[in-house]
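Problem 12. The chain below contains 155 residues. Write out its predicted structure in token notation.
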Amino acid sequence: MSEPGHNPDNLTSDPAGSGTDTDPGLRAAFGEAVLALQQLVGSTAELAAVEARRAVTAAGWILALGVGIAATVLAAWALAGSALAFWLVAEGWSWGWALLLVAGLNLLAALLMALAIRRLASRLGFPALRRTLFRDRRRQTDAEPHQPVGTAYSE
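Solution.
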């Protein structure tokens, strides 16, 4: 004798014993959905891995080409400095003063680039985002009004 709602021959019967059977089509559809989701996740992960490899390869080539560009620009800069020194000597300057002027121009260019790097380096710590996320309202003054999120930040 069996209990109501319990059918040992039908494994799809409702476990709560309500007497209604679970729709086998619903179980099949759920299984297909889970399988499709697994395939989607797997395909997406494979695509991400392939693109990551391509990105690393591209970054390597970009770095190598950047080094080549830097070497070419350095050679051109040296030739321009040499041409300036030769021109100054042809205009009557001594070699010492001509080379000193070229060295001074090189140092001036280096100083300007160092100042630009110093200015840009302050952005490496995401200053606007940090101010927005970690703002201490007690320390905010009227001289420092709140800047709404999404407004342009420039330095």
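Discussion. The chain has one domain: 24-134. Students who got a different answer should revisit the alignment rule from Section 12.3.
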